[in-house]
Amino acid sequence: MKRFLFIALLLISGFSSRATHLMGGEIVAQYDTALNAYIITLTHYRDTLGIPMYQTADIYIYQDTGSGNYVLQTLDIVPLNVSLSTSLLSNFPYGVEVGVYTDTVTLAPGTYRITNETCCRNGAILNMTTPLSESMTLYTDLYVDTFNNSTPGFLAMPIAHFPINQPAYYNPLPFDPDFDTLSWSLNTPISTHMFSQPSLVFTSVTGFTAPAADPMGPFTMNPVTGEITWTPDTLGNYVQSFEVNEIKNQVTVGKIIRDMQYVIVPGGGNSSPFFQNVSSYNTNQAQNYYYKYYVPGQPFIFQIMGSDPEHNALQLTAFSQAFSFANPATFSTFNSGNDVIGTFQWTAPATFTKDIIVVFRLRDGMFTRDFTLLLRKGDVTSVDNINGDVNNAVKVFPNPASNQLNISFDLDKAIDGDIALYSSIGQKVALLHQGLVAKGSSTISSSLHVAAGMYYLVVRDKGRVIKTLPVSIQ
Q: Residue 213's CB: how many other CB atoms inside 10 A?
């Protein structure tokens, strides 16, 4: 661990100590019902080798008068919100400071662009020409209407570190508090902005290139879930900006720009942790994302297991807008040997019909891996059907069972994996079969030596869950 820390510090040191060393950030605007006003929150992240976080920040609020014309409504000099800021983030192998600036404003109906420009960026950034001479400009577009619309926000921080030459998965989890539709795309980081009424002009950083990557694993952002995937092949610090568009009734009503920094360090024999999924899910092959159906008003349960090749201690957390409901989702974890098992439980409101994203984040003390799951509204039929994969049919009988459990298959193709029984908290209690199950119809019978209770039968093919069935043992 000390070796990794030393290398990481080398990557972000050796540059001007007079620079702020900004690593990323964003601006969000959220309506506060109690205040009948908007809370504008500017968040900056910086490495702690630069000068301390600025004590004030300039927040410009422009009103869009149409056709690309703007009027400056106000320039607020906002003090650092000490109670929301932090001098050092936990669970990071090097120092990262967070500075938060909050501004309360009253806005008439209309469209606004809220901006901040602060110098300077982290000098260790490799994918721009002169990072120490580049400012970081952030902005958000806010459409104020009679429904008190808010901008999108994020549930995960804009800094992550990964080992070189290993696939990386990270989701900043954009969300909209109003549950408007969101779309994501990558864009070039912005250095400065200039207002010469009526024009507002942004200048991109010089010499920006995409983060260095193996040609077989380029830096990409999933347009449906927002998950970032890539295989970094060069040590160092990289920045990537992306925009999130807010869409209401098929019309874009807002936008938020976020800058995010990625630190690539040697693995030093430590591999990223990985997921072994207990619950089944579907894969959208065309757009490369995972999804599962929920039924409004009915309990939804998803279990996931994390492992680590070096058997390091693991932390498993979950992020989702579902945790903010009046009847919020819950997430609990349980350690089973060197593995960690998480259980996500949520009962969607009976009238809820939106898609919602859950991100499971696994840490081994050094590296992070995410698993992103899109939850879609369905009915009982769709929920029952998603357990099948390539028309695989798996049934258990008797259910409830006592001394013996029979598992019948009617397979369109052979599977090669294992069949195991898990407790309601995700602990493996019995391995019922391991190896090949032939194509066609067959039955596997297994004696049971477990306590009475509720269990889950999990069928895997080549390590991937293809079926999860509840089993009652009497």
A: 19
